[in-house]
Amino acid sequence: MATHDNTEQVTDTTDEAVGWESKLRYFLNSDFVRSAPYWGIPFVLMSIAVYGGIGYNFAISFTDYEGLGTPDYSTLDLEMYTQALSSDAFISAAQNNLVLLVGFTTICLVLGLFLAVLLDHGIRFSEKFQTVYLLPMSLSFVVTAQLWLWMFNVESGILNLVVTTLGFNPVDWLGNPSIALGAVIFALIWQFSGYTMVVYLAGLQSIPDDQFEAARVDGASIIRTYLRIIVPQLKEASVSAAVVLMVFALKAFTFLYALVGRYRPPNGTDILATLMVRRAFKFGEWAYSAAIATMLLIMALGVIGPYLYYQYKQGSL
């Protein structure tokens, strides 16, 4: 009886070994492993450059590193995070970031949807209008910033020419802290509304015409048709466009730097990205800037994470 039990155990062990050997052979012969010489080296280099940089930034945020010598890792603490969260400059930049994120994203989505509906409804010269609306998106942030710097010029800018023609005094669009952030948001909306228009237009064109016909037969107006039937089907387009817009709003450093050509943006427009770069390169406070960068990364992950989870639940990942 004991001999029979031992034989069964040996058989089970042998079958298990054969199973693992078969799985290992299948894995080694898979396209993933066979293509490793082509993607492996770029993946390792990218991991070192990207994730290594993130890890190094995270590590020095717990030190008092000021850019000279080697960071001292003997005493790690949260002093830089505490200092940032209690700083008026950080709080003001975070508030501006929130206003930029919410205002810029919301208006871009609404305006892009409105333009997409007009184009989808077959207005005259729709193809030409689509090209005109999308053109700003093809411009670099530096070009856009210089264009709007000229538009906002107090003495010769087009906006102030219109304002003075209407009988009002010239407006210092970027010099007045109470309206400077609004002016920046307006310029960014001009550049990105074309992007949201294209995203929504692609979603509208994927909706069958039968739904419009059925709504028309039921006597629904065009506005009710879009609000009750069409717009709810654009949820995925809205989510994907909103994620791109919000991530850009968190790191709109390039546009603000190109607008004035220095680390300090116009009063009232300082955001976390500009504060981070200024404290690092102008004041040499690398650990403090690393702490801000880490918090910016967490904010970005807070935007992208739910989106990726939503895509995963939808089966798109």
UniProtKB/TrEMBL annotation:
GO terms for biological process: transmembrane transport. Keywords: Cell membrane, Membrane, Transmembrane, Transmembrane helix, Transport. It comes from the Archaea. Its main location: membrane. The keyword Signal does not apply. Residues 94-309 form the ABC transmembrane type-1 domain. It is a multi-pass membrane protein. PANTHER family: ABC TRANSPORTER PERMEASE PROTEIN (PTHR30193:SF42). Belongs to the binding-protein-dependent transport system permease family. This is Sugar ABC transporter permease.
